[in-house]
Design a protein that fits this description.
Blueprint lengths: L3 H21 L1 H12 L3 H25 L3
């Protein structure tokens, strides 16, 4: 079942994960973003799609692994 607390926990985890790179290696993040700025829209869309598919697959596995 849907729970607002699950959604807020997921958002909190997202913020923690997003903050790791700029905190640990700001120069590396700057280089990565500069590199991404040079990519085509098609390349960025493909990276986004692969990331979403991996996330959905991982979420499915995590949610259903407890039922095995």
């Amino acid at each position: 079942m849907f729970s607002w607390s699950d959604l807020l926990a997921a958002f909190a985890l997202y913020l923690v994960l997003e903050g790791i790179m700029p905190f640990m290696n700001p120069e590396g993040l700057r280089r990565a973003l500069t590199s991404m700025a040079g990519m085509s829209d098609q390349q960025l869309r493909l990276i986004g799609l692969l990331s979403m598919v991996a996330g959905v697959g991982l979420l499915y596995f995590v949610r259903h692994a407890a039922n095995l």
